[in-house]
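Input:
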Amino acid sequence: MLTDTDLQALWLTVRLAATTTLILFLIGTPLAWWLARSRAWWKQPIGAVVALPLVLPPSVIGFYLLVALGPHGPVGQLTQALGLGTLPFTFWGLVVASVIYSLPFMVQPLQTAFEAIGERPLEVAATLRASPLDTFFTVAVPLALPGFVTAGILTFAHTVGEFGVVLMIGGNIPGVSRVASVQIYDYVEAMEYANAHSLAAVLLVFSFLVLLTMYVWRPGVRTGA
Amino acid sequence: MNRLSAPLVTLLLALFAAAGAQAGEVQVAVAANFTAPAQQIAAEFERQTGHKAVLSFGATGKFYAQISNGAPFEVFLSADDTTPARLEKENQAVAGSRFTYAVGTLVLWSAKADGVDAKGEVLKKGQFKHVAIANPKTAPYGAAAIETLNKLKLLDAVQPKFVQGENISQTYQFASTGNADLGFVALSQVYKDGKLTGGSAWIVPGHLHEPILQDAVILARGKDNVTAKAFMDYLKTPRAHAIITSFGYALR
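Output:
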């Protein structure tokens, strides 16, 4: 069934997805809040940029990242100047790539949830002399909780399913960048179909369970009679 | 009218047949390392015969999976000699159509002008961070690179610095963007008209690894396509041979 390298690939995948989701909660929440509340004219262009990874082929993102993070690219020059080396072929390089790649999956559900709150609860909180930060954590976050759950699950699952970008900048190093999807690809290429099947089945079941959880358990939404 | 229509129909049929013969088409799956020469050969083939070769590029293992699952390829230019043999054994290729169209040359290459010395000593010095190789499980050039390092007794020292490309194109990409200081790539990728197109290289001597035989085969789908046969024959012409060797391949 699953070999040691399969387990290593799965564990790496989980670590990558968890790290990415955590970082995106930190980046995505203020960004989504701003997109939901702001009236600035450049809100729409920013929203479009956030959504770009939805429509760009992973090969485009991967290629740009490989060039930008590489030793001659702008980001690569910066990381080298900071003494961090270059990011491709490292775990943190994959994290950076995944954060960009999964950004819309975090921001869009959150933005929708924040917009659904409307102005009233926030105005009421303000008249009760709650500070904006107070309002955010005691009013907005609890009301937007379903959005947080959806965003977290989607981001995690989408990062697990990431393939093209990892392939482009990962270098297929065991324990560093050989995630489950790449491992499956390798098996297929090497014509080891039995191994490919068992690992693919794990991902299929996982994906189904994730989506099922999301459909069945929605806080505040009752299903059935 | 009846007397007229019989010759007319014959004429029309003849015209269609002629048009069909003139504008034949063949779907060709091409191993990634042979991309550039295949494009030139297909262009010449079309110019000289009027036939069109429609090319798809990719990794040999992936093509095998696709062919086994009904991909519409009629000719396969593989990066190795085992996959075409396997296809033939499984009746997915036309028996007896297989031949070696090119012998690949492995090269250690750097995008920098002083990245690789002419004898490959850079591998022993170890002053590099990453060396890109194609997945040795699936890519013949990757397997040849491992074999070479093994013969030089450098495998243990160099292995921790490996970054793997899924095929030889991606391996070249890692090295050409400078993300990997060095890369074991196909000479055909960095060589044109008898010289390096850039960077620096050590052409790995042939005795350090088994020859990289690249075989072509007509697939079951192309059995009755005369254009498939014509394209295979064209690969053996002096003009095609000249193109193949100009990219640094050998012939046999």
